[in-house]
Design goal:
42% helix; 434 Repressor (Amino-terminal Domain); 12 strands; 19% strand; 344 residues; single chain; 6-stranded parallel beta sheet; elongated; Rossmann fold; alpha/beta
């Protein structure tokens, strides 16, 4: 494996020992395939970031632990790497731990590993779970600051939260649905379908709570999507709509799992439901295409690059690397229709 990096740099990036990295680089026996892949990923991370950063002086190592569908995790990686040059004069290197599924164990393991491998701070997007809270507590005891991203973590000694004002976003979604649907004509009016994730996520809970606070007297149906099973939401919809004769007038996708919003809309169409209003989160490529085609009414957008830049600055501020106060930041949501799509 040809590369310009020292064994020590790769060891720091991968969280492995220098001896293990040396064996993996030279193809010696006794190295597991998963360890070799870990070294390869570390070298790839260094190669991407070397183009952006002028390595030298004090280098800050930040760990990014994200449990989410792959499409979101990839956006997080790209957003942070795009923002790293803007953190100068601080020189920052990022180690990414991108996890799928809903099992909190890999998240807790990644956090514990960060505490033992020289991390200067952690950006964390994870489910609300006692094991994750305990792992963040372990980082606090090791004097490693943690900034929660997009969804907060109640009961944890995290340093700050950076991301969307989730309750405000839910309220905004309910306002749009009410305005665009108009007052329900009868008690048998079409329902509002809310799509939730299958795991425990405080951000989702806050969005759903805000939505319920503002939504008018409408019938609400709820289905659960899954990050690992593309048919999860389709199967749940079939059961939910089996005895429903009034149809679905609006969809609020708090979360979209492996099948995405397209799977939800296609499943509704197969059941004969064509919602008049569809509100989703995040200006991902899929949602942008649905928005332009008219299948989605509005996207509740928040600028991920801004969140990652603020998260990195908070971590550096908490370690004295940059000046300024350490504080949380919850951004108001931006309503995007096909007429005001921001330049990417």
């Amino acid at each position: 494996m040809r590369h310009p990096f020292r064994v020590r740099e790769i060891a720091a990036q991968s969280g492995l020992s220098e001896a293990t990295v040396d064996r993996a680089l030279h193809g010696r026996s006794g190295v597991r395939a998963s360890t070799a892949r870990q070294v390869e990923r570390a070298v790839a991370d260094l190669q991407r970031q070397a183009d952006q950063l002028r390595l030298g002086g004090r280098t800050w190592v930040l760990d990014v632990v994200v449990q989410a569908p792959l499409r979101f995790s990839v956006e997080v990686r790209a957003a942070l790497e795009a923002e790293l040059p803007g953190l100068r004069p601080a020189v920052v290197r990022a180690r990414f731990h991108l996890l799928d599924g809903a099992d909190p164990a890999p998240v807790a393991a990644a956090l514990l590993k960060a505490a033992s491998t020289g991390s200067d701070g952690v950006v964390l997007k994870a489910p609300q779970h006692p094991d994750v809270v305990a792992a963040v507590g372990g980082l606090a005891e090791a004097d490693v600051p943690v900034v929660t991203l997009v969804t907060d973590l109640l009961g944890s000694p995290r340093t700050a939260y950076v991301g969307l004002d989730n309750r405000g976003a839910g309220r905004t979604a309910a306002h749009l649905v009410d305005q665009w649907l108009g007052p329900p004509c009868t008690t048998a009016a079409p329902a509002v379908l809310v799509v939730r994730g299958s795991g425990a996520d405080l951000g989702e809970d806050e969005r759903a709570a805000g939505f319920a606070e503002v939504l008018g007297p409408r019938r609400v149906l709820e289905v659960r999507d899954d990050a690992t099973r593309a048919r999860a939401v389709v199967d749940d919809l079939r059961v939910t709509l089996a005895d429903d004769e009034c149809g679905v007038g609006a969809v609020y996708a708090v979360y979209a799992g492996a099948g995405g919003v397209t799977a939800v809309l296609d499943a509704l169409a197969r059941h004969g439901h064509e919602p008049r209003v569809v509100v989703v989160h995040d200006l991902a490529a899929e949602h942008l295409a649905l928005l332009r085609s008219g299948r989605v009414s509005a996207v509740l957008h928040h600028e991920l690059r801004t969140h990652l830049r603020r998260a990195a600055r908070v971590l550096l501020q908490s370690r004295g690397g940059l000046p300024g106060p350490v504080r949380s930041w919850a951004a108001p949501v931006q309503v995007v229709t096909r007429f005001n799509v921001p330049l990417r």
